[in-house]
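Supplementary Data S3. Sequence and structure tokens for construct A.
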Amino acid sequence: MYLIIRENKEAASAYVANLIIERIKQFVPTRTRPFVLGLPTGSTPLGVYRILVEKYKAGEISFENVVTFNMDEYVGLPRDHPESYHSYMWRHFFSHVNIHPSNANILDGNAPDLNAECAAYEAKIEAAGGIDLFIAGMGQDGHIAFNEPGSSLASRTRPVTLAPDTIVANSRFFDDDPAKVPQKGLTVGVRTILDAREVVAIVLGAQKAVALHYCVEKGVSHMGTLSALQLHPCARIVCDEDATLGLKVGTVKYFKGIEQDAPAPALRAPAIHVPSRTPSPIFDSMGSRMADPMPIPAKTKLLNGHANGLTNGFTNGCTNGHTNGHTNGHTNGHTNSHTNGHTNGHTNGHANGIVRIVVDDDGDF
């Protein structure tokens, strides 16, 4: 995790907006291979959305082949309510750029079955190929999305009850009346966010300084869920100087000195067509059958690895067995060694072709 420090909120917002544009352009999205972007709401990202709209109107970026997933939504607030996150996104961003409405995904806080809505949202993210870049904010207590203090770091999209501090903080959007703020919400989980290929959190203002201190200088904790970004290989927290007031001087100097080393994520590979077929059972190194089907890119690599493993194992096994067989005795040696070589080569090749390449549960290698 890297900390990117800018002089003020305008400079921090510009950094994030330009990073989004850079990532989209690097990806070269198409209709069949869109860039997948996770988005937040609230007061923090307003400067980012303003710059993105300006860049779009100047012809510097297109959102035609971008798919978005918002982080959260209130439960029970009508979609057309001015403070629903659906209204927020269309008011501040979507209606000003060329994103297709069907590509803008926001949780439905009025769904008849909230658990089913959350499960469908997770499935839709997976079907889109996963999130390439997740932009996030941070609450004054260190929470990310609606993952309030105490949330599991392995959590997925789900219904939640908002913490009292969040309700009070959000009352500024509801006539400063906490009683008007919805008590419940839907949110992507911490694990959902960490599954993104890159995560960028924006933290602005002195009121966030204490929480930033705990999330950066203390250990990973479910009491400050933004701290989970310490576990991500390609995460950045972009903040202004005011937000660093709770950090040690040495911490600030360190991150300013290594900013240029912040890594960029590996681009998602294009999907490769795999002919429809019933896959062979796949077993892990302990002999347990693994889940199937796998995502298309992983399945493609699996097929290649499987084929190479079988070919190399079969060839080496047969060759070595045949040679040793002739040396030890033409008839019996040839038969036994050929058989053993074939079997061992096939087995080892099959294992090398499959077990070594299936290393995690999200289709990456």
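Construct B, processed identically:
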Amino acid sequence: MLWRLRILSFYGLLSLFTFIFFLICYIPVTFCNVNYQIKYRIAIIFSYAFVWLAKICCGLKYEVEGLEKLPKTTSIVISNHQSFWDQMFMQLIIPKHSWVLKRELFNIPLLGWGLRMVKPIAVDRGTNSSVAQILREGQAKIKEGLWLIIFPESTKVPPDKTVKFKPSAVKLASVTRVPIVMIAHNAGLFWPRGFWFQQPGTIRVKIIGVIDKAEVEQTDVRILNEKVEQIINSEKQKLLNY
């Protein structure tokens, strides 16, 4: 009973904060000529508040390993995807970036409107045009100096399950000749697919390593995608034991 109350308190406070945030930030920047840098900072503030409320209300803490491995140059981040939490948290550790996400997220009241503000690459999953869109818009984002965060599983996957990685992220890295940063985490142990927390605890996020642009350029996309998939899934499995 107490655990349910903690979860409800999280969503209650998040809803209140989101509504106030919407009035103070979203409406002014939408109807005024505000540059992208300001919009981006506003989005980061919201993510900090989200992660902080999850920690305070539901005891969802986190530890990050390997921050020193992040390269200084624009890169593509490839991570496993287990929870809504990881979407929000990634914004706190990755340099100025954009996303590849499902267009349907725009339909979430208030939150979806906020996502539109930072202009991610919004794709209709399952359509034949999504790969071409990611390559086209992704190249433009990279040229702007933005990192890209991509979940190649394309959906939230339970911690003990694996799915084949879609090759779009690796293809984009090959075309743009940028490094690939590999990340694994175990957020799904505490907050699985959906909106209901499983248990309090400490989420482990591991920046596994970087595939430099020389290897990206020289390696076949299919082979490299299989390598990335194997490495991330292997690290994800290790994190199940924490």
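The longest strand covers residues 201-211. The radius of gyration is 18 Å.
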